[in-house]
Design a protein that fits this description.
Elements (H helix, E strand, L loop, with lengths): L2 E7 L1 E4 L6 E2 L1 H15 L3 H4 L8 H8 L5 H17 L5 E2 L3 H11 L3 E4 L4 H10 L8 E2 L12 H10 L6 E5 L2 H10 L2 E5 L13 E3 L6 E5 L2 E8 L1
Parallel strand pairs: 2-5, 2-7, 5-6, 7-8, 8-9
Antiparallel strand pairs: 1-11, 3-4, 10-11
Length: 225
């Protein structure tokens, strides 16, 4: 059964990987190399690295290692992820939707678990316009699934999170957006609806979402299956 959804908002907050950008192959290649380097089962790592700051995942997987070793591995992986952008492209509808937001002067931000060098490289590779607000792990004390990243993103747009809509593809990101008090839309690029936490709505990609209204009175419109 299809349902028509209309969602009021003042600002939009987007995750990057899996929401605006398809970087799956590049992400997996980098983590696979890192797992080989550290003799860690990639199948284990692949269950925990999606949608989280890489540093937090590395600390978990290298439990018991000293801080210097962890920092070295974070730097190594960051270099891999920021230099390997082969196949990184915008997801269906992402570029057109962001272009429309810019034309209508709608406030939007990217809130990602990728570090600044990684996020910048992927935004450039996918030809996504550089956002005026970009929240990366360097700017917060606690990453997703903590609400801090989305609270900060909304604040830098000039709003409370409750006045914003979060677009997310990963469980940790939806948990973060929900905890921040924002409306949430799950993007089904990597996970099925039943694999994700509760969201206010779910979409297959940004290409099914439209926006209408005038300054300060915006609404998203889309059909949810």
């Amino acid at each position: 059964m299809k349902t028509e959804v209309k969602m009021q908002f003042k600002g939009l907050l987007f995750d990057l990987d899996g929401t605006l950008v398809d970087s799956n192959a590049a992400v997996d290649r980098s983590w696979m190399r890192w797992c080989e380097r550290n003799d860690i089962d990639f199948a284990v790592a692949s269950k925990v690295y999606h949608g989280r700051p890489a540093g937090e995942t590395i600390k978990e997987l290298l439990d018991g290692c000293d801080a210097d070793k962890v920092e070295q591995e974070i730097a190594w992986l960051q270099h891999q992820e920021s230099t390997d952008v082969e196949g990184v492209v915008a997801l269906p509808g992402a570029l057109d939707f962001i272009e429309k937001l810019s034309e209508l002067n709608i406030p939007w931000a990217i809130v990602t678990s990728g570090t600044l060098p990684v996020a910048t490289a992927r935004i450039k590779a996918a030809k996504i316009p550089q956002p005026s607000v970009l929240i990366t792990p360097e700017r917060v004390s606690r990453g997703k699934p903590d609400p801090e990243p989305y609270v900060l993103g909304a604040s830098e747009l000039g709003f409370d999170a409750k006045d914003c809509v979060v677009f997310e593809d990963a469980p940790s990101g939806l948990i973060s957006g929900n905890a921040a008090g924002a409306k949430t839309v799950g993007v089904l690029s990597q996970f099925k609806e039943e694999q994700l936490p509760k969201a206010d709505a779910y979409v297959s990609a940004m290409e099914v979402v439209d926006v209408e209204g005038s300054e300060g009175d915006w609404a998203l419109n889309f059909t949810q299956k």
